[in-house]
Amino acid sequence: MLRGFMTILVKELKELVRDPKILIGMIVLPLVILPVMGLVLGYAAETAQEEAQKATLLVLNNDGGNWSETFISYISASLNVAVLNDITPQEVVSQDVLTKYNSTQFVEIPSGFSQNMSQHVDGGEFAITATIKVYGVFQGGGIFSNIGSSSFNIFVNGFNRAIAPDVVYTSQSTIIKGEIQEGIDPATLSGLLLSQSIALPITLMIMLTYSMQIAATSVAMEKEEKTLETLLTVPVDRFSILMGKLSSTIIVAGVAAVTVMVGYNYMLGSITLGLETAGPIDLVELGLVPSPIGYALLGISLFVTLLSALALAVIISAFSEDVRGAQALVGYLYPIVFIPALVLIYLDVNTLPQAVKAILYAIPYSHPIIASKVIVLGEYTTVILGIIYVTIFTIVIMYIASRLFATEKILTAKLKFGRRSKKKAE
User: Fold this and answer.
1) Buried b (16+ CB within 10 A) or exposed e, 35-47
2) What's the rounded mean pLDDT across residues 76-95?
3) Dist CA 63 CA 116 (whole Å)
4) What does the alpha-carbon distance between residue 198 and residue 200 come to, in Å, rounded to a whole number?
5) By the 8 A CB rule, do 241 and 231 touch?
6) Nearest to 400 by CA among 275, 287, 239
């Protein structure tokens, strides 16, 4: 029934193995991407922990008693602490004290802390507890960006074990766009927005890969079926042929950008998290949903990025002999799409070394993901500069594509590897 099966199997395997484009795309690239992602994840966690340890913790000592001094001495043994006396949390935010100390969080020891501690330790009412108020700045970065706000509870728990169980409690608050939001933990808020950090990069990766494959297949199919030669002989400007091929995918890209914006808006508007202490967190009320201008800028960023990917795919596919070769060549571009997206899921670009940051900003496919994070905080300048950069990149790519279509190289261009070239030379 399967007579000759092994012969056909061996033949097909030899053809696949002999094609360097497929071999590199399926074997070499995963061996590069996965180790890189392992390094990224390790670096993300390590960087977050180092920042939490090195950051200056501001302590507002509004109590001035013996127990407040004891607590400050305890945490000073492990943290870099700066003590401010007789200053309110509102003054810290309005006077931009955090920037002065290069800090992203502070704690307040309120008045009456030492009195409550003394009553509890001296055998008073067990219900009396002392509260430390913790304030963290919402950074809106990667998954590990707000690790410092949750790590402070470790020191409070250690202090409780050293003194008496469950004496000191913490209340969490978040500073969002310069305003204090009581009862909201920065780490909890970051977890709530985790879907935002993951959904858009993954969606963008899928859109880019599909659109690039469609654009590449369009040109490669013309070359494979020998219809491109006929098309280039008709009395039509060759740039019009290029734009005609791109226009259909541009329309699809525009529709895709709009649909992503609709889905993205619905996702952010529907995300809530019920907390026993503070009730549901409403992102709209907190101002963490983009404004109409923000949505417009994000949509433009998505559109120009998709357009650049389509133009680049057309150029790459011109060097292929058939559809399979075009798809394999386009696969070489996937690392510059996947790696920035996956990196920005876990890391805040502002915390990266300058060299790494420059590389991410140089890759055009990073900008929609960066834009999705900064528009929530109202930082439109970064988005606009990214749109300008990607637009210039797209114009350059389209110019190269137009020059390629203007010559006969569009018919003869082929990307060859050493083994095949040597065979033909012989």
Assistant:
1) eebeebbebbeeb
2) 87
3) 11
4) 6
5) yes
6) 239
Dump pLDDT digits (tens) for 14-50. Answer: 766 666 556 665 666 667 767 776 776 676 666 666 6
Would you call 128 helix, strand, or coil by DSSP? coil
List, in order, residues 6 or more apart from 8 with CB less than 8 Å away. none
Q: Within 13 Å of residue 16, how many CA atoms lie on the same side as its CB?
A: 9
* Tokens representing residue 28 in the block: 């070499």
Instruction: State which of 74-78, 228-232, 234-238 shows the largest mean pLDDT.
Output: 74-78
- Let me know: does 411 contact 228? Beta carbons within 8 Å: yes
| pLDDT top residue among 381 and 376 | 381
Please tell me what DSSP assigns to residue 142. S
Fold adopted by 47-191? abc type-2 transporter like fold (3.40.1710)
The answer to whether residue 80 scores a pLDDT higher than 60 is yes
SS3 (DSSP) at 176: strand
Q: Report whether 301 contacts 390 (CB < 8 A).
A: yes
Cβ(54)–Cβ(104) below 8 Å: no
Domain spans in the chain, listed from the N-terminal domain onward: 47-191, 193-425
CB 207 within 8 A of CB 303: no
For the record, the structure tokens of 217 come out as 């297949």
Measured between alpha carbons, how far apart are the two ends of the chain, in Å? 41
Sequence-distant (≥ 6) Cβ neighbours of residue 425 within 8 angstroms: none
What is the per-residue DSSP string for 75-99?
HHTTSEEEEEES--HHHHHHTTHHH
Q: Which CA distances in Å does 92 have to 107, 148, 337? A: 11, 19, 41
Q: CA 51 to CA 353: how far, in whole Å?
A: 13
- Count of H helices and E strands in the chain? 20, 6
Question: Please, which residues have CB within 8 angstroms of residue 186's CB and are 6 or more apart in sequence?
Answer: 105, 136, 137, 138, 139, 146, 149, 172, 174
Q: Against a cut of 0.70, is the pTM above it?
A: no
Cα 249 from Cα 273, distance rounded (Å): 39
Per-residue tokens: 310: 């389509």
